[in-house]
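Fold it.
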Amino acid sequence: MTELIHTHSMTLDSTPGRVFDALTDPEDLKVWFAEHVDVEPRLHGRFRFWGRHTYETPGPAEANAVIREFEPGRTIAFDWPLAGREAIARLDVEPEGEKTKLIVTHTFRRAPAMDRAREMVDDLWRMHFGALMCHLMGAPVSLPDFTETAQVVESSIYIDAPRSIVFRAFTDPALLNQWIAKDAKVDLDAGTLDFGWSYEANGQTVVPPPMRILEIEQDRKFVTNWPDWRGDPDVPDQRVTWHLEDEGKGTRLTLRHDGFIRPTDISDYPFGWSYFLSQIKSVSEKSASA
């Protein structure tokens, strides 16, 4: 089997020194990376990590990583095998204006023996980079519990607007375009919802098909399927459910995203949905005050 070299990057609104500290300080790592860590930040030092937030490494017996490269403030590389394949993950910190670019290169001499191996590695790093971004921003960090049999993204937000106004943000194209869609089209009779998205993934242009509205309960519940974001037709659809409940003079909006085939498919959805929840809150409260 051929090698697999996966690279992913993110620009962070922090200094290079602060980012590198978050990659090597045990207290930082326990927030965004792993439940348990044992780190000796030097060349050939320990970089052990395990627990319920670490894929395939629930206990310390499986955690034997060693630091293979170490340049203070700039680079750290350590062992991170996956699916029985030896691999090294290298993290490079680069200044980018007033911000910092973090680049990971995860190298496998032999690719993991599984379907969509590259996507699995990509999703894993998207998950951890999203957690790191939130940690550096001082925002709540959400990491999956890999000891659970099924992964679910759940998040909620209070909106100072009645349910009827919040619900319109799911069915009114003009409102959808203000918080999640680009060129929304809604056909309640046909039961379809199209965000009008088009973007690049894996070097290809992805145009997601219209979603199917699976269940709708006026002002209370809105459910759709959720196609694979990379546009792979062989990946089964997931499901997104929105619940609306009265809370005081406003609305408690709760999101549930489920139907993931494997644990890492959760990717960076927790952080993406947190952003969209803040957007729908802003749009709904603006509509309520108009």
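Helices lie at 16-24, 26-32, 117-137, 163-171, 173-179, 269-289.
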